[in-house]
Amino acid sequence: MGRSMCLPIIGEPVRMAQGEHMGSPLRGNIMDIRMQIKDLSLWYGQFHALKNINMEIAENRITALIGPSGCGKSTLLRTLNRMNDIIDGVKISGRIFLDNKDIYQENIGLTELRKKIGMVFQHPNPFPLSIYENLTYGLRIHNIGEKSIWDEKIEKCLRDAWLWDDVKDKLHSSALDLSLDQKQKLCIARLIIIEPEVILMDEPCSTLDPIATMKIEELMNTLKKDYTIVIVTHNMQQAARVSDYSGFLLLGELIEFDDTNNIFTAPRDKRTEDYITGRFG
Amino acid sequence: MSINQNIIEKIVKIFLWIFTIITIFILFYIVGFILKNGIGGLSKEFFMEFPKSMGREGGIFPIIIGTILLTLAAVFIAGPLGIGTAVYLTEYTRENRITQMIRFGADCLAGIPSIVFGLFGFVLFVIKLKMGWSIISGGLTLSIMILPTIIRTSEEAIKAVPKPLREVSYSLGGTKWQTIVFIVIPQALPGILTGIILSIGRCVGETAAVIFTAGSSLRLPNSLFDSVRTMSVHFYILSREGISLKNAYATASVLIISIGMINFLSYWIMHRFIRRIEGK
Ligand SMILES: Nc1ncnc2c1ncn2[C@@H]1O[C@H](COP(=O)(O)OP(=O)(O)O)[C@@H](O)[C@H]1O
Ligand SMILES: [Mg+2]
């Protein structure tokens, strides 16, 4: 599934214009590419979990990774902020660029990288601390601002995550007392308070009920004005509803990467079609 | 289920019940015996006054102070060492020969009779390092004795902190050290504290390791290099040398009550810890 790529990696900001390369789904619009994955392979010990992945992440768009469970979606997502680094026995080849900078370079600051590329996990996982302490954790570890401006930041991020009205009177009570979707919103707020640029979401709605899911999806839609979002989901309707681009993964291979519309209406690969139409997975 | 098996079930149950009763009876008998003989000797004066004529008369004020100081010394030495070791073993190493050896060493240390620590402390701290019978010699000796407990309980507490919390911290850009200091240790703290409190209980009740290293002075200490007498040592001397059985029992009562309170405290903390882990 090699896809020919001819982007200028170093130097000028990468811009892609219509017709610049046929393989890319981003050919339709002129837009900024925020991240670029080149010839990425990953092994867990002997197990080849990602096979020669090539794709781009567009700025201020939602890119979905779909595919049956175990195909490598989470793994691929976690390579984007190097969360696989903390797992023993992981070997990675290939390159990933954020704004033309290889994030797998030796001298990249992991802390800075992860501040820029934040993550929302499958299970809502606030720290067992107060709502306030959850939100200030990122500010504390990154030494952001004086304590005096924290309250302002807290209000803003909670408003952005649509949680402010629910919690404004109980900022100092435990985050564990929130409902599941409130917890997930808090996790989003905890992330956006440190002003990341890219948000990675790993099945953020899989533990939520349909109504809560819809709210989070709406939230994602508003967030994409300010953030670049990559979402993993095994829920195809969700991918169809929220994403602009979709990549279909199967057994560690990126089978097809295209406009979400194309993927769902006119898939080019037979395997994508089978998956979309529910023939397996 | 046949009738036979039913009968066996019943008999087993009765025997287990009897065993339990015996255990509880022994425990209550000992505690009751000591309190019955000792509680009459307890008074405000007993707590607040200095002992007179070797402890035949008067109270145990300097002995209470000595016990507290010695215990604090031991905990202040062993606490940081033990918690540091536990953090290193759990967060900074993978399971390998060396960590296994450290753990094995700690377990062995836990099994050594305390009198051996006493002798070791006497030879090393009192004689060789010329610290004499003192709070510092006794504190160092006790700290070696409680180190394994602190390491093991801290390790378990740290391991019990859910992995996702660490992942979240890393994903927010936290360093390993920040994650340990701001997330892991606070979450593990109740467990760590339980270990420390259990160690305090051991220190307070310890005789053999203390008598060789902290001595048995009845005066209030002026510095870490002065000798002190702990309650268990006092009890030992009073009863062995037949000085005053009444005051010996009174001292033992204070000892038992303190240890009871310490254990109660640790249960209380543990309980809160469990509630927290269960997300309440
Ligand atoms: N830490 C790990 N060690 C070894 N194998 C792993 C690890 N994490 C995931 N895998 C394997 O890699 C494959 C992809 O996993 P994952 O990325 O979690 O899939 P998905 O998110 O698409 O369900 C699976 O076969 C899984 O068993
Ligand atoms: Mg997954």
Report on this structure:
The complex is a heterodimer of chains A (281) and B (280). Chain A is 32% helix and 25% strand. With 281 residues, chain A is an alpha/beta fold. In chain A, strand 5 (90-98) and strand 6 form a beta hairpin. Chain A starts with 14 loop residues before the first strand and ends in a 5-residue tail after the last helix. Chain B has 2 domains: 5-39; 42-278, MetI-like fold, CATH 1.10.3720. Chain B has 280 residues and is mainly α. In chain B, helix 3 (61-92) runs parallel beside helix 6 (135-159), helix 4 packs across helix 6 (135-159) and helix 10 packs antiparallel against helix 11 (245-277). Chain B is globular and about 65 Å long. Chain B is 76% helix and 1% strand. A two-stranded antiparallel ribbon of chain B has the order 1-2. The longest helix of chain B has 36 residues, at 3-38. Classes of the chains: A alpha/beta (281), B mainly alpha (280). The interface between A and B is medium-sized, with 27 and 19 residues. The site of adenosine-5'-diphosphate has 12 residues of chain A, from strand 3 and helix 1.
Q: What is the typical, i.e. mean, pLDDT of chain B? A: 91
The fraction of residues assigned to DSSP E strands of chain A is 25-35%
CATH topology-level name of the largest domain in chain B: MetI-like fold
Q: What hetero molecules are in the model?
A: adenosine-5'-diphosphate, magnesium ion
CATH superfamily of the largest domain in chain B: MetI-like
Low-pLDDT residue intervals, each spanning 5 or more residues of chain A? 1-22
The count of domains of chain B is: 2
